[in-house]
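Support case: user asked for a sample of complex input and structure output to validate their parser. Sending the pair below.
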Amino acid sequence: MNAPAKPNDYTAYPDASGRFGDYGGRYVPETLMPLVHDLDAAYTAAKNDPAYQAELSSFLTHYVGRPSPLYFAERLTKHYGGAKIYLKREELNHTGSHKINNCMGQILLAMRMGKTRIIAETGAGQHGVATATVCARFGLPCVVYMGAVDVERQKPNVFRMNLLGAQVEAVTAGSATLKDAMNEALRDWVTNVHDTYYLIGTAAGMHPYPAMVRDFQAVIGNEVKQQILELEGRLPDAVVACVGGGSNAIGLFHPFLNDEGVQLFGVEAAGDGMGTGRHAAAINGGRPGVLHGNMTYLLQDDEGQITEAHSISAGLDYPGIGPEHSWLHDVGRAKYLTCTDQEALDAFKLLAELEGILPAIESSHALARLPDVVKEVGKDGIVVLNLSGRGDKDVQTVADHLGRQI
Amino acid sequence: MTKSRIEARFAQLKAENRAAFVAYVMAGDPDYAAGLEILKGLPGAGADLIEVGFPFSDPMAEGPPIQRAAQRALASGMTLNKTLAMIAEFRKGDQATPIIMMGYANPLVHHGYEAFARDAAAAGVDGLICVDIPPEEADPLADALDANELSLIRLATPTTDEKRLPVVVRRTSGFVYYVSVAGVTGVKEADAAAVAPNVARIRAASGLPVAVGFGIKTPERAAEIARVADAAVVGSALVEEVATGLAMNESVTARVLSKVESLAKAVRSARVESLTV
């Protein structure tokens, strides 16, 4: 594809048809189209309704625990010996990740729309836990689709969802990971359109989900902007986040899109290494195509069949990426780096030892690229990294890789 | 082209006062050779039109039978190009039976819409159903198909209300496919009484024949649908014959064609029987 022209206002996207340049759109079966239009209209109305915004804001403050701190990581900064490193502490949110920001926004919307049943997909289980949590809080039945492989590697989160009253459906179709969970959730939605709300966990899928999820996650970047101005009196030189579907990254990036002095770095999962073909890096190792309702970068073979993603992190183990990231990559506004499983594990251990924080294995991918970003912005620079989730759920995975019994 | 194969076939059936039986098979299920053998046998077994599925790794509107059929086809090495080659091979021996390809967007996006339309026309394809390209996203594809005189066949569903229907039938030709149940293929059962008024309003809005599918498994149900619609489509029940044939180590071709015969017979006699009742 030709490199498209840079827009004057990055925040003016998507357009009315749900496009970020060539990416996005609404590639869904006809049965869902009326629902997708209804959702678009309902979300637009809610967004402009002060009562809805006030209700959301109140729950984010009193239930989620926002704002999350922006923490100066002094020892990590010393370790790399360059730019000041700040961590946006999304792992301190209720349920332990940024996922709850979006779930709270969507469940309030679902109730406004009169929906009485919630379905969701989950990879690492963080979105599933966050969805189960808000469903428990508001008394709605909840079915979470999760790949059978992920059910196995994220057992604590499966049990957590059960405790919260959610029904977890293990999906054995295909590669039995996040993409298959999403297929199954879409099949459920198509079958139960009359009463069911599909609470998508990432800034991907058919319009309006990529824009809506981004808006709910933009609370991250908006807080960072305010907090860094209070702490440093200026904007950061770079912000960094891991990217699977890309909701924590777009939430951090979006408020900075028009601040061209702020470099944006997304970190994709390189799994065993980009050269091995066993990775989950849609932008660095994929091509544009259509899956799950949107045109975006995808891992696929020479015939347009979707290929399996590979990552130690269940949350990044997805062959696609949100369409806004695809567009930001093409126009050159954001840079997408990669990080292998091993690099993420090393970064996990480093943060635990230097700062006393166990990061999610997903967030560890962003942490692993800090030396590169620190180098890029120079000694007087300021870097903000989104610590999107906590690592308690990953303790077993890390132990397995270290060859330890727990 | 003055009159498409699809138009000619529906005109012929209208003159015979009967509905069409449409057989859906997955290309290359269980492999290319057996898939081609099945395809060649379908008209003789009573299929008036044929839908040829081209496999996709992530078929989000399919129930388990067609999901498994796609997996078998992919495992046997089936591709979009091989699907086109198989249809070209079929066309050598049959110039009358319309072939509609059915599948998902990504293999088409990868192939390129213009190249696909050109290659499909050359292979003797008559139309395309793309499950995840709704009217909102269809213009580039429709342009390519129009240029090659291929029909873009649209899906109408139980969620298609009066406001939506004109959007759905815009730029469609050949026939309209009515998805008789809100759901995936091969799970819920179609209800002829509920289907009839929808068929009538889609026919009125489009001026085209209406085929009904997504919930027809038995000859009885096919006959009921054939009394109220212009065509009855069966897919999951046919690909399940492939699965059963493989499991029981029997000829899949014989099993599929035998099933087609019983369904086609029910469709052919449906209106005659209803008159005598």
